[in-house]
Specification:
The chain has about 290 residues and is an alpha+beta fold. Helix content is about 35%, strand content about 30%. The protein binds adenosine-5'-triphosphate (ATP).
Amino acid sequence: MELSANAKINLTLDILRRREDGYHDLQMVMQSVTLADALTLTPAQGEEGCAASNLHFLPTGGKNLTQMAAAAFRAAAGTGGEVDVSIQKHIPVCAGLAGGSADAAAVLRAMNALTGAGLSLARLAEIGARVGSDVPFCVLGGAALAEGRGERLTPLPCLPFCHIVICKPPFSVSTPQLFSRVNVRKIVRRPDTAGVIAALNAGDLTGVARRMYNVFEDVLDRRRYGEIASIKAALIDCGALGASMSGSGPSVFGLFPRLEDAQAAQERLLGSYRDVFLCAPAEKNV
Ligand code: ATP
């Protein structure tokens, strides 16, 4: 079975509070995009399923998120065999684009179809929460407000059609380190989450783009902040209506109404960066 696993971007990312259990309560508006990994699922050749990909550093056994998803599905649905998963990664890894979660979500949906288990997307999302906090959103796709650790989802209308340029600079950002740097009471700038939701409901692309923000941008060290800021500036300079960092970074994206501008931005950024993608909003899964 051939599957496509869409990446996501964060139109907003806000941290509301640190919880007693050490996690943070988040509020994020997420949108899936057409940048996607291609997966092939086949019955396992050996006793246990494995995951092969074009990236040598990804785990191939039970630690690959696709195998974790298959195991979670079997445990919850009480059906389904071992599967081999072949992954053509197009979504950069550790980029704030939920690439691994997207792969896991695609496997949950595929196993549901292959076994005829007939679980609802909401139930699959629940199962996915055991694999990773972005998996429930990736199961649903489209646009949604994600709260809690990201598992409480309220579907929203998709971003109006536009062109999205995503640029991943070549450094990684440690998510636990970012969280440890956030002092919730001292967050100065926050996204206008309610405004973004209202703009999505009104189909107002400019309204969304102008209100986007990611509070993690404020706690990056000076060098990384400078690089993120310069990518955002390049995107805006080329005609993006707004630009922001996605998830815990380092990917930065811009929303463009005009294809020519998005292409010009991609070309300009490709002069300095290898991972620059041109994509569009993706519809919710059915
Ligand atoms: P998020 O936006 O959800 O924080 P991310 O883009 O920062 O995600 P991912 O690319 O999803 O990060 O992957 C993070 C980790 O998951 C990596 O350490 C990687 O080795 C591991 N991993 C396991 N399976 C996969 C997979 N199928 N694809 C990508 N990464 C995987």
